[in-house]
Each structure stands twice: as C-alpha cells, then as structure tokens.
Amino acid sequence: MVGLAEEIIKALMRNSAIDKCADLFVKHARIWLSHMTLICLGLEGTAHSFGAGIVSNDGTVMANLWDMLSPEKGGIHPREASRHHAEVGPELVRRAIEEAGVSPSEIGLVAFSIGPGLGPCLRTTATMARTLALRLSVPLVGVNHCVAHIEIGCLESGFSDPVTVYVSGGNTQVIAFAGGRFRTFGETLDIAIGNMLDVFGRSVGMGFPAGPRIERLAREGKEFHQLPYSVKGMDLSYSGMLTAARRLHSEGVPVPDICYSIQETAFGMLAEIAERALAHTKKSELLLTGGVARNKRLIEILTGVAERHDVLFHRVSPSLAGDQGAMIAWTGILQYQAGDRLDIAESFIRPRWRTDEQDIHWRSE
C-alpha cells in the first residue's frame, strides 16, 4: 500500500508543496502500517525436517510445528526427504493454522526457505509456498535458511548485533553483521559438526540423529583421547577428527571415552574461533543457534567464552534451535517490512546460497 501511495501521488502531483504532502502521507502510512498486525506463515524444508510456523509482526510465535524424517539406517536421501515433506506438509500447515487460532484469510504473508539446502527438498517446499501464496492472494518472500537461524535467535534474546555461532547438521559458521551483510568470520572447510556427529554415531550403531546420544555417553567418559585439533586461521576441519574417532572405535576404545573426546575437541575448536571473532569485532553479544545448540556441554564452553570477554550470551531455546518454520516466518516479516517481495515466476530455489551472499536491508550498521 505504501509503495502504491508513493507511486500514484508523486506521479500525479509534481508541485513541490504537494510533493511535501505526499511525503507526509507516506510517512504516516508507514507508521499506520507498522501498528497493524501482519501474520506470516513460514515453511521450512531444506533437509530432513519440514516445519510450518506462524508468527506475527510483534514477534509472537503463534504456532511452530515440524516433523523430522528419521531413516532406519544410513543418512538422509534427498528424494526420500522431499517425499516426506510432500506427505506431511499439508497437514502440518493445517495444524499450525489451527493452533495459531487464525483463519487462512488472516494470513498476510507466506515465507519459505529458498536455500541453502537439498535441491529436491527445497523444490517441494517452494511449490507448497507458491501454491499457498496464490491461493491466499498474499505476497511471497524467499528466506535464507542460515540468516533465519540468526534472526530467530536475535528475536528471542533481544540481541541487536551479536557474534553468532551457528552449528547444525549442514552448517558450522561463526558469523557477524558488517557492511550490510552477515559476514562469515570462520567456517568448516569440509563437513559440518552435526554431520560429523551423525556419521560417527552411525558407524558405532547409533540411530539418527546421533548428537543427543553422543552427548549422553560423553558424560560417562573417563579418559580423554587425543584427536586432530584442526583450526586453520579462522576456519576449522572435522573430517580428520571423524577418521581418528572411528579408528579409536576399531581399536576397542570405549564409546563413552570417544564421545567425550569428540565433544571436548570439536567444541574447543569452535570456542577458539568464536573468541577470535569477538576480539576482532568488539561486539558485546554472543549467540548460539542451530540444531547443535541444544548440546549442554557446548553451552557451558561458550558461556565461559562470554564470561572471559565480558559479553552477553544466549543460546536459542530447543524449540527454536533446529530447522523450523517460525524462524522462516519471522525473517520473512523482517524482509517484507524492508520492501522485499518475490514474484512467483522468479521464486527459484538457491541450494548453494551462502549466508554472506544476501544483502540485509532491514539492519543498519
């Protein structure tokens, strides 16, 4: 509405005095719209989980439902995951709307995870989002999955400009906002920490996801075994650690001891680059987000980092840590309010869309 007001009034009225009136009208229209309730339906489907979340523009999470594919053996197959999303998606959307206590006509925006992620999963999610936007006659917004993890953490914590440690099955990054984008200050050079934990877990007979089981067994570990500590500048590597941990298992080292050694080494590497990022950026907030943010030992280690640097620390709640629709809905609202729109014909997925490739128009330096 605001953009339309600008276009019509300024196109028809060229007199400078009237232009001032037009500017005033637009200014007050923006204020008026900011006080209206905007409800966004967010769809997340980048990998093994499909989520439907409903969030209002005042930051209220009205509903946040998800379903995770857990294969009986092996890892996640992209086509199997996409079929899972197609099967559970419509019912999850229906239940989310019901739980939010709104009617479909009250939804004013549809947002979806446009990338990064597995191609088949992204395409299935995008198809549902396009269909819903057309059916409801509402705007469509495409959201960067990684950016959404940061923004939902900022919403919950009240942080305005943190250094973010983002850890999940597919991503391991230390991020901070600078120059109009979320800049990657350090990241994995090979596999993500969550993937490393899952692959090790499968090799010793654990189910998916293996992270919670590894965390429990690590508490029973008594002997620390040296594993490759691979920090290269501000980046890190986990493939060598995975190979060494599997070798220890083949040599008969107790699994709890290996789990303990993995956690202490892997989390210590993350803490090192997080500390460097804090020292470099001079920021006063440290945020932990992503699925691995549920790990209590990682929380303890990063709490210590925050205390040493005298900064605030927050880890996202378990319900907001993994891949879910609320983070997509909230980030969609931020983008929409900053003027972001996505034409259906241009709503292509971006499987390799990096965190630092998106201009963040809704934030200022």
Which terms would index this structure?
365 residues, alpha/beta, Nucleotidyltransferase, domain 5, 3 domains, 5-stranded mixed sheet, globular
Topology:
Blueprint: H1 2-12, H2 16-34, E1 39-44, E2 49-56, E3 61-68, H3 78-100, E4 109-115, H4 119-136, E5 140-144, H5 145-157, E6 163-167, E7 172-178, E8 181-187, H6 193-203, H7 211-218, E9 230-232, E10 235-237, H8 239-250, H9 255-281, E11 285-289, H10 296-309, E12 312-315, H11 318-321, H12 325-337
Parallel strand pairs: 1-4, 4-5, 6-11, 11-12
Antiparallel strand pairs: 1-2, 2-3, 6-7, 7-8, 9-10
> Uncertain regions: pLDDT < 50 for 5+ in a row?
1-13, 29-34
Q: How would you write the strand order of the largest sheet?
A: 3-2-1-4-5
Q: Provide a count of the helices.
A: 12
Question: Helix/strand/pairing class, anyone?
Answer: alpha/beta
* Whole-number total of structural domains: 3
